[in-house]
Design a protein that fits this description.
Number of domains: 1
Helix content: 40-55%
Strand content: 5-15%
Number of strands: 5
Distance between the termini: 29 Å
Oligomer: single chain
Structural class: mainly alpha
Radius of gyration: 17 Å
């Protein structure tokens, strides 16, 4: 697996989350995008899967690294992220194979083994990912890796400046894909923050109104002011 992809993976699995909502939503939808709706029932089911995984993790002595009490926002962020990267792949003519997905999953399994846990425990505890969504995580990283290769010609930059520049180009493309999807989140769950490409609770969103400047870091404090409109 590419070094830059793994660094981004670490940021994604350890970072924070955020959302924005405007306009009307279809009945029973947690979010609506250009690819269809994510139903509240589907979100509730995946949140239950995540909480079940947390219970299993706890019995194994593994603690969640994400803030508790924000599971709906965290899971909804993943469900939206998968759609955004599917859109990005379509926009750039990227078609990932089953072998590429399996390669990414093998990388996650190796990381999990280093932590002496299985893949399900690793993604749930480290990234608030319901274990049922592990295949989608593999596809997400496969698209990310393929897109990075497209941008840098497979050179895999090691210098910090080059890595930062590459990640900025990826973030710009991600922003364009998210913008094209016209993401609309049910206010019950929060709003979509384009500075972190994630969903934040409505309460955090309102509290952020008094802060100065948006956050560009996935691991930034929830008090940072979210960007509710695409900057791209």
């Amino acid at each position: 697996m590419r070094r830059t992809s793994m660094q981004l993976a670490a940021a994604v699995l350890a970072g924070g989350l955020a959302v924005t909502a405007c306009g009307s939503l279809q009945l029973g939808a947690a979010a609506v995008t250009g690819q269809g709706r994510i139903t509240s029932a589907a979100l509730t089911s995946q949140v239950a899967n995540l909480n079940s995984a947390y219970a299993t993790d706890k019995r194994k002595g593994v603690s969640p690294q994400r803030s508790r009490g924000q599971e709906p926002q965290q899971v909804l962020t993943w469900l939206l992220t998968f759609q955004v990267f599917d859109k990005l792949a379509a926009q750039h003519g990227i078609n990932v194979t089953t072998a590429q997905v399996q390669q990414q999953l093998a990388g996650l399994q190796a990381q999990a083994a280093q932590q002496k846990v299985n893949t399900a425990a690793y993604v749930s505890a480290a990234g608030a990912v319901p274990p049922d969504l592990v295949p989608q995580i593999g596809r997400y990283f496969a698209i990310l890796s393929a897109f990075e290769n497209r941008l840098d010609g497979g050179k895999q930059p090691t210098a910090q400046a080059a890595q930062t520049a590459l990640q900025a180009r990826v973030a710009h493309a991600q922003c364009l894909a998210a913008k094209d999807l016209s993401i609309n989140v049910n206010p019950q769950y929060g709003a979509y923050d384009y500075s972190t490409f994630s969903v934040v609770p409505a309460q955090s969103n309102l509290a952020a109104a008094s802060t100065i400047g948006p956050s560009a870091s996935p691991s930034a404090s929830a008090s940072a002011k979210p960007r509710l409109t695409p900057p791209c």
